[in-house]
Amino acid sequence: MKRTGILCLLIFTGCTLFAQNSVQWRNDRTGMYTETGLLKSWSANGPELLWHFDGLGNGYSSVSIEEDRLFVTGYHEGKGYLYVLGTDGKLQHRIEYGDEWDDDGYVGTRSTVMHDDGKLYIVSGLAELFCYDAQTMKLLWKKNYLKDYGAENTKHGWNGPPLIVGDRLIIAPGGKEYHVVALNKSTGNLIWKAKGATDKDMSGYATPIYIADRQAPQVVAMMSGHIIGVDLSNGELLWSYAHTNRFGEHPNTPVYADGMLFCTSAYGKGSVMLRLANDGRSVDRVWENTNLAHKTGNTMKIGNHIYGSGERTNWHCVDWQTGKTLYSDPSLAVGCIISAEGLLYCYSEKGEMALVRPNAEKFDIISKFSVTLGTEQHWAHPVIYKGVLYVRHGDTLMAYRIKY
Hints:
Elements: E1 22-23, H1 26-29, E2 32-33, E3 48-54, E4 64-66, E5 69-76, E6 79-86, E7 91-99, E8 114-116, E9 119-123, E10 128-133, E11 139-144, H2 145-149, E12 163-165, E13 168-171, E14 180-184, E15 190-194, E16 209-211, E17 218-222, E18 226-231, E19 237-242, E20 255-257, E21 260-265, E22 270-276, E23 283-289, E24 300-302, E25 305-309, E26 315-319, E27 325-329, E28 335-340, E29 343-348, E30 352-357, E31 364-370, E32 383-385, E33 388-393, E34 396-401
Parallel strand pairs: 2-28
Antiparallel strand pairs: 1-4, 3-34, 4-5, 5-6, 6-7, 8-9, 9-10, 10-11, 12-13, 13-14, 14-15, 16-17, 17-18, 18-19, 20-21, 21-22, 22-23, 24-25, 25-26, 26-27, 28-29, 29-30, 30-31, 32-33, 33-34
């Protein structure tokens, strides 16, 4: 392990749906961070590197944060490990939680750690869910999606972190009788199970989202062949929409706003916009677009536009209402996207971190720098927390100061 640069003490204020002083998967699953006072441009070498932690092992999981603790997972010699770091980059705990994914040429951990009400939830690439006490690091309970819910593992290992709504932990195993499942978040006991549109639907990789503003509050999940809405109270299937591609893979978290539900995936399908009825029991297709069709990097809604990259090349801007492609730009390799204080942070698969101004007419790069530390693919989504940009690149976690 190495640490470089200036170690800093951070004073935290909260900015997510889940709790004050915390960030989780893409902050609150939207990718929108509510930080203020951030740098509007960077030097040619990028913002100041405060510290870096080496030795995580292989992995693509992002960081989650609660107050002064960072949670991230890594792979070593067939096993998965939970790392708990302070915001100064110092290791506090290293816990082995079980076997991890070592197939398909992309060895390593996948799902971001979730934390809630004093507990940590980890999903391995082998489709096991672990619940730990966040203080003692004692294992409280665990579930196996394959054995307990009749699921089949995905081709590239399990990815999506669970969704927590109130006392319920929501997962989407995709088993014949267990397409979507609600567990008691404290005990792991089954609250309800939901069947999907067909018995053949498996998990589509993406993590579910919660929609609260319809008459029937619901969980939306992208299965391998359908997008489905399930009643949060009892697991009733409210609606389904056929949406698949040649591999049945849909890793990107859906985006929802004001009755409009945007879903995107690659491998020949692209994006679809659905309009959710006021009662929450049906959807209508508004438009489709095959340009905006990224594999894993997600998208951002800024105003009336959607920003994201394509399957193999080009960053796109698409009109939220009509689906029209406003530009398609090849100047940065495809990758992940988040946003804060009106700007986009685009982390390319080639290791370039770009600060981009949302602009419906062009891909407007303000600054960029190369991430040179770490190993393997640049696939983990970046995280912003109290003026610090956290970038995980395989074996290494980096902390950059991006606040004035």
